[in-house]
From TrEMBL:
GO terms for biological process: microtubule bundle formation; microtubule polymerization; positive regulation of protein polymerization. Residues 131-154 are annotated as: Disordered. GO terms for molecular function: tubulin binding. Pfam families: p25-alpha (PF05517). Gene3D superfamilies: EF-hand. Residues 137-154 have a biased composition (Basic and acidic residues). It comes from the Eukaryota. GO terms for cellular component: microtubule. This is Tubulin polymerization-promoting protein family member 3.
Amino acid sequence: MAESVDIEQLLVSFKKFAVHGDTKATGKELNGKNWAKLCKDCKIVDGKNVSSTDVDIVFSKVKQKTSRIITYEEFQRALEELAPKRFKGQSKEEALQSIFRLVEGKEPTNAGVTKVAKTAAVDRLTDASRYTGSHKGRFDESGKGRGREGREELVENTGYVGAYKNAGTYDSKMKAEK
């Protein structure tokens, strides 16, 4: 079909987009959401000639009637459908080569993913050395959590009332009296 374009690279891109965002995906079929992401990330959707609506229509056209996914062969047919729309001035074969070049070797981008906030307010609120009251006991001097002993009142079976100052002195007092 396309001689000058590396078909292996096209298949690699297909598999990467097929498994994006789905832990159970096998990489053999592409759902509609990932097809739309592929078209946006690979710059097939340009806003003038090809819109996201066109991408959805082509997806519906190439997939089987009852299916919600497309295979690699259907993916190639979908690119063939979009190629003349995206590259209007070129012949059908040149447009197909150009659209394959847009897709090959690409992988999903994570643009817009939330970053960890590094602001003074967050640092102040998460600094365990500034905690007061009952929360202060949950962390040691280095700011590491103490785990269960920091969260609960642990019962010591010593026979003394909790927080008794002279705990463990009974035996020494008895020896002193003798």
